[in-house]
Amino acid sequence: MLISNLNFMNNNAVNELFPETLQILRDLISFRTISGENNLEFVNYCEKKLTSLGARSIKTYNKEKIQANLFSTIGDDNGKGIILSGHSDVVPAISSDWTSDPFIARDNNNKIFGRGTCDMKGFIACTLAVAPLFASKKLSTPIHFSYTFDEETGCLGAPLVLDDLKKRNIKASACIIGEPTNMKAITANKGYNEYITYFTGLSGHASNPEVGVSAIEYAIEYSNKLLELRNDLKKRSNGKIFSPEYTTLQIGKISGGIGANVIADQCSLEWEVRPINKEDSDFVNKSIEEFTKKILLPKIKKKNPKGNINKIVIGEVVGFDKEENSSATNLICNLTGDNSKNTMPFGTEAGLFQNAGISTVICGPGSIDQAHTVDEYITYDQLKSCLKMLISLREKMI
Prior knowledge:
Layout: H1 2-30, H2 40-51, E1 56-61, E2 68-74, E3 81-87, E4 106-108, E5 111-113, H3 117-136, E6 143-148, H4 158-168, E7 172-177, E8 185-189, E9 192-200, E10 204-205, H5 215-234, E11 248-256, E12 262-263, E13 266-274, H6 278-303, E14 308-317, H7 327-336, E15 341-344, H8 350-355, E16 359-362, E17 377-379, H9 380-396
Parallel strand pairs: 3-6, 3-7, 7-16, 8-15
Antiparallel strand pairs: 1-2, 2-6, 4-5, 5-17, 9-13, 9-14, 10-12, 11-13
Helix pairs in contact: 1-3, 1-9, 3-9, 5-6
């Protein structure tokens, strides 16, 4: 009977909070927080809502001071707080491809459409909507709200937050990363490494290829080596917790040259690796660097001493390792009533929080199938499920 009454009260609270959740989500969508761009309006909006409830807020900035992370706390710090974590940035959206403006929320058929609705402003909206409940009574342990920048482009913001927390000696017992998982517990994800390799050759007239050095042709040789490594990675699987079970490597973009009749002196190659472990990450880097140094670069410099190959690290994000007895996972399963546990092949900030010594789980509203898509949306039901989980969490903390 007690459980039934609790569910009834939680459902009532969900219905009361839902209109405010939708309004907050509409507001958040209106902030064009594309990765690499200014997110200060978004951060200030969230900070204002939380500080009005008595939250203590800390902001950490990028070097240019145009992007910020927000870390806000409700309750007295006792070293056992729970972090609700989401990223503020979204991937770009081409307005002409969408049914309506991607940065103006549109409701239709019990869904709300807009860039970032499921990845992951829907989760952030839910946390802000429930924040007044956390602030209404004394908590047994603090609740932390962590909103980061540039997760989509290498998780650039989260390390600043974690370094700052370490300096301030702020500790937490658990972290819930609200990536879109259909409110299922995710216990592991692959790492994410992103690179751009630049090739410098020697321009010349295409009628005499011997007088120049084609940067594009050397980029192709480099690409062929990466594809060779990709096949090697398929043989290095050490378990079947992911799908695909092995480390993946993908070449996403090649740019160079100005025309068919000109030998290209510049070319760039954008590629990524999603390692299942550090060993695979090291294997790829060591192998391609050895190939470059011993084989490819000498060939370029033989014809052009100023020729060069330069691999730039855009981001190397550690994976999220599965723990046999994770307190964060147990907490989520208890809150949702769903004991199923899954893994994800894409990168998140979870591994960073885990490496900081915080028990971590990924669980949030929406489907990854909708993330980064044209006409991205989240369903009302998923938002309500997230609200119910957060309300249940609050009940455990008072």
